[in-house]
Design goal:
The complex is a heterodimer of chains A (171) and B (558).
Chain A lengths: L2 E4 L2 E4 L2 E3 L2 H5 L7 E5 H14 L5 E5 L5 H8 L2 H4 L2 E6 L6 H12 L5 E6 L6 H7 L3 E4 L5 H4 L20 H4 L2
Parallel strand pairs in A: 3-4, 4-5, 5-6, 6-7, 7-8
Antiparallel strand pairs in A: 1-2, 1-8
Chain B lengths: L5 H22 L5 H9 L3 E3 L4 E5 L5 E3 H14 L3 E4 L5 E3 L7 H10 L16 E2 L14 H11 L14 E4 L13 E7 L5 E7 L11 E8 L3 H15 L10 H8 L1 H18 L9 H8 L12 H13 L2 H10 E3 L5 E6 L10 E3 H14 L3 E4 L5 E7 L3 H10 L14 E2 L14 H10 L3 H7 L4 E4 L13 E8 L2 E8 L11 E2 L4 E2 H18 L6 H8 L2 H8 L4
Parallel strand pairs in B: 6-7, 7-8, 16-17, 17-18
Antiparallel strand pairs in B: 1-2, 2-5, 3-14, 4-5, 4-13, 8-9, 9-10, 11-12, 12-15, 14-15, 18-19, 19-20, 19-21
Classes of the chains: A alpha/beta (171), B alpha+beta (558).
Chain lengths: 171, 558
């Protein structure tokens, strides 16, 4: 079973990320699923009716705007257990802004999960931007990777994890 | 200068530990080359043509004598006993070993230095005027604002993986000595009608392949909002900058594509949302923090001096000493404090790569700063070093010591004070060598009287279109190009890094290595033939235009 980091702890990851090709068959995989934003927006009503027996979240790609998610989902956003943000390449930093907007601007309280090609050495920064879960594309030593969440003990700036800058808290 | 407190020091120490672990995992095969690339770049490490190169941050160019001595020691222990000053006021080591970089960073951390974000697609070192704090035309000392920006940008969680590199410059004076309009963000300190300090914000400037002068996007930003407004610009860029083509990825391309007006509106909308979301104005700068940082940039206790008497004495010393007089005229400038002077130490003697200094020279600079000033120096974007607050009555002694150390070449601001990138001798990006061209020009223009008669003439050399040598903004620019494996040089004229910033125009077909010095000579001849009394090169060029230069350089020999 695939595992992920959740709030710094290694847990089972039994979610399936559903992509556009998966949807062509018209049959959704079993178990907990993360659906593409557009699909959710299109099928919202039936999904809400039919998926009572499992958890359903939404994922957005790096180029998709958080604003579209928020406007499209409206009241549903707060009820979503997970919003996942995909990293097509680890150097694509748009997801960092997406996470901050979800947390800081739209006060999303559920899990913000990183999926895709991000790397362990980004975890400290990603956590500050509001990511709470990390589902790596490759199998890596998650226990060791969790150490990267603690690379720094302080930070100058405000971020999703710290509403006050260093100069207001400690100086 | 800014002195680290426990939080600054801890952060830099933890960065060393982080990079030490990353280097170990890389050498152990746990991190791929592709993944290690941005990690090492954001710690200053490039892999160059011959060896790695480590770029050390010198925040806004300010260095203490203690730091200079540490750099000298590091260059002896880990390198070949010399370092290179860059056009971003930073320092480069040319021959470090990848395995030893964590140790070098640890040595730097001991003297409150680092190499964080000196490369890579992140917010780089913030630069400013080398005469900050002492310039007569200063509105306000820009360095506290640079330090506030440095802290905000250091390990910023959201902006470590931008579409491309990102450079900020702050200008605190009437005259621009920071080329601030050629930065991704240019910040001009201004005062409003109530006398309050604020910022005129420009965005979208830059050199490189597509040189652009920055556009004004906000005329007056109240100072407490500096960081939230920068967050807004960076967020808009991070989200909407081009990530498909690295040559179209700088913010200048986005500003151009959207137009400056639309870009400014988008930033304004983002900024309004940021500050509306902060119930208790969380990121607004406090007066306490601004004063805390300002308090670090102390000026010496100036003596009350009779400026006329001091100047008269200096005139007497200069009258019977031509070399001293020459040095005074080119390398020394008045400060706003009467009786004191700021000296530019030249790193451009002929035969040495522009910006290179030896370990011994670093120590000499430290000694000069301790003996004649307050133990601080400033690196300049022209690749020289400035020491301020020298008593004019001590300039003669200063000059003799600087001369003995090879730091008193009296050519500041002349054709021989060229900006020059490391070029094909070191850099793997370069299309052509630049250092030998600089040297050949210096050797050609070796008659100081002639050089002085030419007056202010900025000559900038880049070994490739990435423009580290700022060729677009030289009065004369030289750009190395590759033609079927051979090194050629394109000449450009009419650039300017001043507040009336201008981008140079191409003279014509590029010249071979053998022709380039002769070409420069012909250009200078046209200037001399056409100049009005006392007119500087740029003014003559602007008056007579390109054609006369073109005709002379490309004239067929009879």
């Amino acid at each position: 079973m695939h595992k992920m980091l959740s709030h710094g702890v290694v847990v089972e990851d039994n979610w399936t990320v559903v992509t556009a090709p998966d949807l062509e068959s018209g049959v959704l995989p079993a178990g907990d699923i993360l659906l593409p934003l557009n699909y959710w927006l299109e099928k919202r009503d039936e999904l809400l009716l039919q998926q009572a027996d499992r958890a359903v979240g939404v994922w957005i790609d790096s180029h998709e705007e958080v604003e579209a998610l928020v406007e499209g989902l409206a009241d549903d956003l707060a009820r979503l257990p997970v919003v996942a943000i995909n990293f097509p390449k680890f150097v694509d930093g748009r997801g960092f802004s997406s996470a901050r907007l979800l947390r800081d601007r739209y006060q999303y309280q559920g899990e913000v999960r990183a999926i895709g090609e991000f790397i362990r050495d980004q975890l400290f920064l990603m956590q500050r931007c509001g990511f709470s879960q990390f589902s790596f594309a490759n199998e890596i030593d998650l226990q060791a990777a969790a150490a990267s969440l603690k690379d720094f003990s302080e930070a100058y700036q405000t971020a999703a994890d710290q509403p006050q800058p260093l100069f207001k808290r400690l100086r | 200068m800014y002195i680290y407190d426990q939080y600054d020091q801890t952060l830099v120490d933890e960065r060393v530990a982080q990079y030490r672990d990353q280097t170990a995992r890389y050498l152990d095969g746990q991190i791929s080359d592709e993944e290690f690339l941005p990690l090492r770049l954001q710690n200053g490490l490039y892999i160059q043509r011959l060896a790695p190169m480590l770029r050390i941050a010198v925040p806004y160019g300010l260095l203490s004598s203690r730091q200079l001595r540490a750099l000298a020691e590091i260059s002896r222990k880990f390198d070949k006993g010399y370092v290179h000053f860059t056009t971003r006021q930073n320092i480069q080591l040319n021959w470090p070993q990848l395995e030893e970089v964590p140790d070098i960073l640890a040595e730097l951390a001991k003297v409150q230095m680092h190499a964080i974000q000196t490369s890579g697609n992140c917010i780089r070192n913030t630069t400013t005027d080398q005469f900050a704090g002492v310039a007569a035309d200063e509105i306000e000392d820009p360095r506290p604002w640079c330090e506030i920006i440095r802290q905000w940008s250091t390990i910023h969680p959201e902006f470590a993986f931008l579409p491309r590199k990102f450079k900020i410059a702050v200008c605190g004076s009437e005259q621009d000595r920071a080329a601030f309009l050629l930065h991704d963000i240019g910040i001009q300190l201004v005062k409003n009608s109530a006398g309050e300090t604020g910022f005129h914000i420009y965005a979208g400037g830059g050199l490189g392949r597509t040189p652009v002068i920055a556009s004004s996007i906000r005329e007056f930003l109240p100072r407490q909002y500096l960081l939230s407004y920068l967050d807004a610009i960076l967020r808009v860029y991070n989200r909407y900058g081009n990530r498909d083509n690295k040559y179209k990825a700088r913010i200048k391309i986005l500003v151009k594509a959207w137009t400056a007006e639309v870009f400014a509106e988008r930033v304004e909308a983002e900024w309004q949302q940021i500050i509306a979301g902060q119930g208790d104005a969380a990121t607004q700068l406090t007066e306490r923090e601004i004063e805390r940082v300002k308090g670090c940039f102390t000026l010496p206790d100036y003596q009350q001096l009779d400026a006329a008497a001091v100047n008269a004495e200096l005139q007497t010393q200069a009258a019977d000493n031509l070399p001293f007089s020459r040095w005074l005229s080119r390398n020394v400038r008045d400060q706003k404090q009467p009786g004191y002077a700021a000296v530019t130490l030249s790193l451009k003697p002929a035969g040495v790569a522009p910006g290179d200094v030896t370990d011994r020279q670093l120590e000499s600079i430290a000694n000069l700063a301790d003996q004649f000033s307050n133990g601080e120096v400033r690196s300049t974007h022209n690749q020289n070093v400035v020491i301020t607050d020298i008593l004019k009555s001590q300039l003669f002694d200063f000059w003799q010591q600087a001369k003995a150390a090879g730091l008193a070449t009296p050519t500041i601001g002349t054709i021989n004070d060229m900006i020059c990138c490391p070029g094909g001798d070191y850099c793997s990006l370069a299309n052509a060598k630049s250092i030998p061209v600089a040297e050949a020009i210096q050797r050609k223009f070796d008659d100081l009287d002639y050089v002085y008669d030419l007056g202010d003439l900025e000559l900038n050399i880049s070994g490739c279109m990435n423009a580290c040598g700022h060729h677009h903004i030289g009065h004369i620019g030289i750009l190395g190009v590759d033609k079927k494996g051979e090194e050629w040089y394109q000449i450009q004229l009419g650039g300017s890094a001043s507040k009336q910033a201008a981008l140079a125009k191409v003279l014509g077909p590029s010249l071979s290595r053998d022709e380039v010095v002769e070409g420069i000579e012909k250009i200078v001849d046209v200037f001399v033939d056409n100049r009005l009394e006392g007119e500087p090169f740029l003014a003559t060029y602007q008056r007579i235009g390109m054609d006369k230069f073109k005709e002379r350089v490309y004239a067929q020999d009879a």
